[in-house]
Design a protein that fits this description.
Pfam families: ACT, Homoserine_dh, NAD_binding_3. The chain has about 400 residues and is α/β, with parallel strands linked by helices. It has 13 helices and 16 strands. The chain is about 35% helix and about 25% strand. Strands 6, 7, 8, 9, 10, 11, 12, 13, 14, 15 and 16 form an eleven-stranded mixed β-sheet that branches. It has a three-stranded parallel β-sheet with strand order 3-4-5, with helices on both faces. Strands 1-2 form a two-stranded parallel sheet. A hairpin with a 6-residue loop joins strand 8 and strand 9. It starts with a helix and ends with a strand.
């Protein structure tokens, strides 16, 4: 905002003045930042009344929520990168912004520097989006990529991600899928014009993904990714939002997304298939998205208007995961003897789960049986697995993973 002030002024149509910076600890050295702008009283800053735009990159629910609401009440628009807050209370924040006649922009909340929120809200506003499928967490993609390319186990890959700064000291939000679930809620709400919160998103992390799962995926010509998947039902009566590991074929564009990069695949009726790719986290990519929103909001201020707000006119319900239809990869440890495959196949048939392919390897009385199904509901697959566990010939259900992107 200071080094590129002239460029920003030219793009906006007026200069932007940095009025204050609220921080937790004022004593830190911040090169290039004027000390007189630093304050620890964030509430007083947002309530000044002479502020046009507040940028919130605090994170978390509180005090961020109250600070944003206070900014609205005092006439300021808000640019935020707070995915957790938007996924939980986005509808309330949008309503408060609309009541105050100000903007709420949050491109940086999902996929870092990748332009995604604005294309969904504006560029595709005249189209019907049916599916959003993406890799929206760089930490987990780095871990799975290392497991795939180097043969490392989960713990080894996580250790490397931590050493390189991709994973936090406490990586729970990333590896258990909470971060991706918040982003999926935001994307689903915008794409399908309905209210979706993080509580509506089915979530599985990647901590249970094993080297054997990675090897099985390779044998099928697939790779394992932690995906955020948002879909409109075929009848248009409901939506689903879910985050979980899945096998996708190497031919799918998302399969080639490496390291800590993000990519989101959007399917719309008129536009067809679109892919958005780039760095999904980090200081500079986040700053790029924040400044892009700042320019847009300032332009709106100068024009005496506001940008697109919350569009939730469809009010579609979120379908529970047990009703979601997908394909499955089921790995079983079984006795290596005649008739076992027939027993297993009959259990799948009993619950209406059609088998696509079967692969079996046996040695010294033990065997590994890998079954890939056609599309079935989560409830049907769950009932099938419960019955398989009761068979004397099935020693263990080693892993279950969904298959996407066919």
């Amino acid at each position: 905002m200071t080094t590129d002030a002239a460029d920003l002024a030219a793009r906006i149509g007026a200069p932007v003045e940095l009025a204050g910076i609220a921080v937790r600890r004022a004593g830190r050295v911040r090169p290039g930042v004027p000390e007189h702008l630093i304050t620890t009283d964030a509430e007083a800053l947002v309530k000044r009344g002479d502020i046009d735009v507040v940028i919130e990159v605090v994170g978390g629910i509180e005090p961020s929520k109250n600070l944003i609401l206070a900014a609205f009440k005092h006439g300021a628009s808000v640019v935020s990168a707070n995915k957790a807050l938007l996924a939980k209370d986005g509808a309330e924040l949008h309503a408060a912004a609309a009541a105050a006649g100000v903007d709420l922009y949050y491109e940086a909340a999902v996929a870092g520097a990748i332009p995604l929120i604005r294309p969904l809200r504006e560029s595709l506003a005249g189209d019907r989006v049916n599916r959003v499928l993406g890799i929206v967490n760089g930490t987990t993609n780095f871990i799975l990529d290392k497991m795939d390319t180097t043969g490392a186990g989960y713990s080894e890959a996580l250790e490397e991600a931590t050493a390189l700064g991709y994973a936090e000291a406490d990586p729970t939000a990333d590896v258990e899928g909470f971060d991706a679930a918040a982003k999926a809620a935001i994307l689903a709400g915008i794409a399908f014009h309905t209210k979706v919160t993080a509580a509506d998103v089915y979530r599985e992390g990647l901590t249970e993904v094993t080297a054997a799962d990675i090897a099985s995926a390779k044998a099928m010509g697939c790779v394992v990714k932690l995906l955020a998947i948002c879909e409109r039902a075929a009848d248009g009566a409901s939506v689903t939002a879910r985050v979980h590991p899945a096998m996708i074929p190497l031919s799918h564009p998302l399969a080639s997304v490496r390291e800590a990069y993000n990519a989101v695949f959007v399917e719309a009726e008129a536009a067809g298939r679109l892919m958005f790719y780039g760095p999904g986290a980090g200081g500079a990519p986040t700053a790029s998205a924040v400044l892009g929103d700042l320019v847009a909001v300032c332009r709106n201020k100068l024009g005496g208007a506001t940008g697109p707000g919350d569009s939730v006119y469809t009010q579609l319900p979120a379908k529970p995961m047990d009703q979601v239809i997908t394909r499955y990869h089921v790995s079983l440890d079984v006795d290596d003897r005649a008739g076992v495959l027939a027993q297993v196949a009959s259990v799948f048939a009993e619950h209406g789960v059609s088998i696509d392919t079967v692969r079996q390897q046996g040695r010294d009385g033990d065997a590994s049986l890998v079954v890939v199904t056609h599309r079935a509901t989560d409830a049907a697959l769950s009932a099938t697995v419960d019955k398989l566990r009761a068979l004397d010939s099935v020693r263990d259900v080693a892993s279950i993973m969904r298959v996407e992107g066919e």
